Amino acid sequence: VKEKTIAARRSDVKVIIFPSANRRDFDELAPNVKEGLEVHFVDNYDQIFDLSFDKEPPTEGQEK
């Protein structure tokens, strides 16, 4: 988890999705490693899908 988080920061990734089982490892990271990241912990693929794709249809003026 530490290596993946550091690699994400180096690549300017702002959002990370981890399995819920990795929450403890992530929580143990130093605050400066976690800073500026939006992190989600999921139990199944449906949660990944919901986070990755907007469920709402686009409103007028938005791309489809």
Characterization of the model:
With 64 residues, the protein is an alpha+beta fold. The chain has one domain. It is globular and about 30 Å long. This is Lon proteolytic domain-containing protein.
What labels describe this entry?
single-stranded DNA binding, 64 residues, Lon_proteolytic, alpha+beta, 16% strand, 41% helix, Ribsml_uS5_D2-typ_fold_subgr, two-stranded parallel ribbon
What percent of the residues sit in helical stretches (DSSP H or I)? 40-55%
End-to-end span in angstroms? 34 Å
How would you characterize the largest beta sheet? 2 strands, parallel
How many helices? 4
Average pLDDT confidence is 88
Supply the helix-strand structural class: alpha+beta
Record field, number of beta strands: 2
Q: Which of globular, elongated, flat, extended, rod-shaped describes the shape?
A: globular
Task: Report Rg.
Answer: 14 Å
- Domain tally: 1
Order of helices and strands: HEHHEH
What are the low-pLDDT stretches, counting only 5+ consecutive residues below 50?
none
Output the strand order for the largest sheet: 1-2
Q: Report the β-strand fraction as a percent range.
A: 15-25%
GO molecular function: ATP binding; ATP-dependent peptidase activity; serine-type endopeptidase activity; single-stranded DNA binding
GO biological process, one term: protein quality control for misfolded or incompletely synthesized proteins
Domain Lon proteolytic: 1-55
Organism: Nymphaea colorata
